[in-house]
Amino acid sequence: MKYDVVVVGGRIGGSSASLFASKNGADVLMIEKNQEIGTPVQCAEATSSRTFQTLEIKPSPNYIRSEIKGADIYAPDGTCGHLEGGYAEGFILERKIFDKELAIQAANFGAEIMVKTKVKNLIKKENKVCGVIAKHMGNTIKIKADLVIVADGVESQVAQMAGLNTKQTPNTLCSCAQYEMVGLKTDPHYLKFYFGQQIAPKGYAWIFPKGENVANVGVGIRSNTKTAYHFLKKFASSLDATPVELNIGGVPVSGPVEKTYTNGLMVVGDAAGQVEPFTGGGIHITAHCGRIAGEVAAKAIEEENYSDNFLKKYEKRWRNEIGKDLKDSLKYRKILDQLSDEEINMLAKFLKTQDLKSISKMSMLGFIKEYPQFLKLLKEIL
Ligand SMILES: Cc1cc2nc3c(=O)[nH]c(=O)nc-3n(C[C@H](O)[C@H](O)[C@H](O)COP(=O)(O)OP(=O)(O)OC[C@H]3O[C@@H](n4cnc5c(N)ncnc54)[C@H](O)[C@@H]3O)c2cc1C
């Protein structure tokens, strides 16, 4: 078997790379280890319209469960800040359907897909990746390729086989546990976030509505004292609802890996740490980077240049286009890490009195005068 491009992993990163590589003329094979694209879900399924713009697809009612107009954010003492529109607007997807739909789009542009096939190793020749060795239904298959795009998620191993350091550790990850719950009385157009050491240490709990009485209820933590599942059970026990699904997974929240390409290979999405560290949102970033990897791959095929030097265009482009957002997001996550519950309460009470779109310098100064401990944090933000 021989393809221009082999893509490892068949969710957002893999399908967006396959879609744009195929669209731009490359002969693509996408390989997914699970028997079905999109399952099991490990996601709270919130995303913004940027995802659809990037992928050049129209949002479809087939997979949109809720249109989101804003968010309620709860401090540990229950103080609630409300965000309306802007950054808080978006959609809750049904990723089982969305991910499969994206793979179908890639297939419609000519990408071939193999499911229930696990990439076990890379084929290398003279320091260049030139294919993969995969296992399908007990058979080992050698698949040659000019380029390999790795989108195998947070537990990525394939990029490491090419010498890239994509390894995540408990310290660089946020541990998450989530139920999809039925019976919940929550506004279908608003997200809910809950902060506090007792609720979700160094993270947050969420309720993301999926229509009228279904919601994703989850917890993301960075603490090794108790598991995310422990905090999820505690949080969910206060809700009058019952689970129909449980997901457990990690999110890389320490910023992108140092290098995302080498001779004959690029790495995309969670596997490359391309996630917003503050929110843990990776769908739109992964789609963005997947698209760039697909486009660069097609160009590399056209120019018959698969070298490290050519593929650095991929890293240059994604760092230029979204690198600053990821850096800022990491900065905010580190600032939040430093705040005690009491300080989050103070900040929430102050923000509740402000128009968040235009907080004046005078009111900021008034707040710092009252609570000078925030001066250092303000300097870090600025
Ligand atoms: C609980 C939780 C909630 C989240 N909530 C949100 C949210 O609300 N909004 C948001 O934007 N982001 C969210 N995220 C992050 C988001 O889900 C990820 O950033 C995104 O799915 C990354 O996509 P990906 O394609 O890089 O990786 P993945 O979605 O992990 O896909 C990787 C694929 O590769 C396959 N694979 C792995 N190894 C191999 C192999 N050797 N051979 C073949 N196939 C292989 C896997 O089976 C999988 O299908 C959440 C994450 C978690 C864990």
Describe the fold and architecture.
The chain has 382 residues and is of the alpha/beta class. It folds into three domains: 197 residues, FAD/NAD(P)-binding domain (3-Layer(bba) Sandwich), CATH 3.50.50; 82 residues, D-Amino Acid Oxidase, subunit A, domain 2 (D-Amino Acid Oxidase, Chain A, domain 2, 2-Layer Sandwich), CATH 3.30.9.10; 43 residues, no CATH class. It is built from ten helices and 18 strands. Strands 1, 2, 8, 9, 10, 11, 17 and 18 form an eight-stranded mixed β-sheet that branches. It has a seven-stranded mixed β-sheet with strand order 6-5-13-14-15-12-16. Helix 1 packs parallel to helix 3, helix 1 packs parallel to helix 6 and helix 2 packs parallel to helix 6. It starts with a strand and ends with a helix. It binds flavin-adenine dinucleotide. Flavin-adenine dinucleotide binds next to helix 1, strand 3, strand 9, strand 12 and strand 16.
